[in-house]
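hiii so um. not sure if this is the right channel but i have a protein structure encoded as tokens and i wanna go backwards to a sequence. like what aa goes where. can anyone help
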């Protein structure tokens, strides 16, 4: 397409769309990070361990975000991007709000899985839309402005979650007297999730730009976008991806062996961690290889009470110099060995 015939990009509506998408990204990170500020109250209420909270905040979210992110990004290449962002925002906001009604670790983990799946839909589609709203000469600037939602949302989520939780707990110190017997952390999830549900309708009103118009390579509508989504899901999600691997001619035997090795290593690390605090004298654990016997601590994770050095309890929150020196030398030894190899 000649420059004279190419439609004008940018302008006030593009700025408006950018503003809306930044807000979506802010909601994305508010819902993602609010769990960290609520973790202590969640642990006290549900009786979860530090390991479970780390699994909830990191592994549960990240695995499903990554696995579903690729199929949803491919779907954004062939379907209406504003609708994909709107549905994703609606879904993850609903999962966040429902987290306020969780009364067990397993239910909360299930809702966090939903948050990860929903949030995986936002950024790929947003990047694609912004690339068609603006000319290529300012694309990096536009993406940088959009990415500022990460830090805005992260900061707001921590403050807002703590403020709502403390305010609610101060207003209703007796849980039985609170509406629906909700606690502060329950209300915090509801307070950040419900506005996102309403925001989804706003996102749906955005105009869908012509795909590829910023580069003069206008793409036709895909005739079967749902088929693309189905194929991508089957190629990424176990056990359905076995069929795709077989069709691609990949070795199922090698993939099965790799999966078994990963599961065995994970099982060994979990077992080693479980015995880490009870069998210090008679066994050498995997964590000793890297960090020595001081690597293991009891589940409370409180350095002041749990970590002992030379038989003496610590009297402040700082790690002793000999522990830091020992830790540094062990990691340096591993790094040097890897470099030589």
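sure thing!! here u go:
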């Amino acid at each position: 397409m000649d420059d004279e015939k190419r439609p004008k990009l940018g302008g006030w509506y593009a700025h408006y769309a950018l503003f809306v998408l930044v807000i979506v990204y802010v909601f994305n990170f508010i819902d993602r990070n609010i769990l960290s500020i609520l973790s202590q109250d969640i642990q006290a209420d549900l009786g979860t361990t530090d390991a479970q909270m780390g699994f909830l905040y990191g592994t549960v979210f990240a695995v499903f975000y990554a696995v579903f992110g690729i199929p949803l990004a491919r779907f954004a290449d062939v379907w209406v991007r504003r609708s994909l962002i709107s549905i994703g925002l609606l879904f993850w906001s609903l999962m966040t709000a429902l987290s306020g009604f969780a009364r067990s670790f397993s239910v909360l983990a299930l809702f966090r899985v939903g948050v990860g799946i929903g949030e995986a839909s936002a950024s790929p589609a947003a990047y694609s839309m912004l690339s068609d709203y603006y000319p290529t000469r300012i694309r990096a600037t536009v993406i940088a402005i959009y990415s500022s939602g990460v830090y805005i949302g992260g900061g707001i989520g921590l403050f807002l979650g703590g403020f709502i939780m403390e305010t609610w707990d101060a207003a209703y110190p007796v849980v039985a007297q609170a509406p629906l017997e909700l606690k502060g952390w329950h209300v915090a999830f509801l307070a950040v999730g419900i506005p996102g549900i309403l925001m989804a309708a706003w996102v749906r009103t955005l105009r869908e730009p012509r795909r590829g118009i910023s580069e003069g390579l206008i793409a036709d509508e895909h005739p079967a976008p749902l088929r693309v989504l189905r194929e991508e899901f089957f190629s990424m999600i176990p056990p359905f991806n076995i069929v795709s691997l077989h069709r691609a001619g990949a070795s199922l035997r090698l993939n099965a062996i790799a999966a078994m090795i990963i599961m065995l290593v994970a099982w060994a690390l979990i077992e080693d961690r479980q015995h880490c605090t009870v069998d210090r004298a008679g066994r050498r654990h995997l964590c000793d290889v890297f960090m020595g016997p001081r690597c293991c601590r009891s589940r409370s994770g409180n350095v002041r009470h749990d970590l002992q050095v030379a038989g003496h309890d610590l009297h402040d929150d700082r790690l002793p110099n000999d522990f830091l020196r020992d830790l540094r030398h062990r990691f340096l030894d591993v790094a040097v060995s890897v470099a030589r190899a």
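oh and The first strand starts at residue 308 and ends at 309.
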